Amino acid sequence: MSNKELDPYTAKAENNNHTPQEKIQDLHSIVKNVKTGMLTTRSKGGHLHARAMAPAGPVHPDQVNLVFIANRASAKFDEIENDSHVNVAFYDESTTNWASYAGRAKISQDREKIAKHWSSATAAWFGDLKDGVHKGDQNDPRVAVIEVVPDEIRYWYATRGKVGQAVDIAVGAVTGNTSAPGELRTITKDEV
What radius of gyration do the chain's Cα atoms show? Predict the structure, then answer.
């Protein structure tokens, strides 16, 4: 048996018949609703470490790169320098929509890029160390940008509300048919 026969859910739910712009628009709605993703990096020892981070943006409608402002002194930067492959995952509990970005992280301390994505609330994550240098503002030398450039983005987009999903799952359980109350979509490197 083929994988499609052995995994009827994926075969039924996969839908890549949308234009790249339609897929990006729906992806943006997931990221905007969730607001916080889990950035996963790999340590030198091979361990995967995830932490919650809020992306800045998207800044324009066709943007698929994720941008994070972070403290350059944190361990995630050592991990990214060791292995730039990362994953960022989002899950919206209210809709069951999710997104998974697989790609590479780039580190920058470009002041223009930092200024573009800086918000006054970001300062709370740095704090003023009262040494005249580490002020917790956008000019603080600890402030850096992590830009995730995706190789592939996979996401699940609910096509039914919670009640419709529950009905679809119940019907599947009773009839033995496969339930798929949403669509699995992929944004490929070529579409990025």
Answer: 19
